[in-house]
Fold Alpha/beta hydrolase.
Amino acid sequence: MRFDGRPIRIETQWLRPERAGRPLLVFLHEGLGSVSLWRNYPRRLCEAGDFRGLVISRYGYGRSTPRPHEEKWGVDFMHRQAREALPALFDVLDIGPGRAHGRPWLFGHSDGGSIALIYAASFAPAVEGVVVVAPHILVEDLSVRSIEQARRAYLETDLRDKLARHHDDADSAFWGWNDIWLDPAFRAWDLRPLLSGLRCPVLAVQGEDDEYGTMAQIEGIHQHASQTVLLKLPRCGHSPHRDQPEQLTAAVSAYINAETSSLK
């Protein structure tokens, strides 16, 4: 596909494509994620809920085209992923209203959750619903402190080697994410003005022990989009699909299937 005026490669993995007619979940990963870093969770969820799935690595991550090191992302990088890169990918893959794969559900974790919210608010007729897990709608001090700690870990521990197993260019993936989140200009980043544009069903999930965000993140979604259902998970950090996979799977499966049934 093409993005920013040039051809790029996007890593994709289809799950259970033979289940035509069942909801399609598009999995949007966290700031340092990729197809492989989801491990087996997307397949586990799709099998539990009888869904189809599409797992992607965004530009700069996984086996997708790496970000050139001299390319600096702006504070609007998630908006560009949602409003430019994702529509371009969906066009290539024939996803959307009246197309072969139909309107998707977006399942986004962390930065991927933010991208899902921006896409759904910007292209309301194009989505069936959204599940966001530990999303960001504003920048909190807690988030910045944890991202500063991640920078130290990348420089001082084996984090770089671990990420290199999942990304063609670990430095491209890490610094593209870390530099912009720690840019002072990013402190003003705020999705709340967009959220009233959400028209689809929304399930927003947050762990009570999330080291990257407080409950203000998902409660803010509900304040601006009253249809949002909140799920707050005890003894759970920033990655509910790893910390509380059974509870998350049960809740997401029940929610999507209930919403799907109500639309018939």
Summary: The first strand starts at residue 2 and ends at 3. The mean pLDDT is 97.
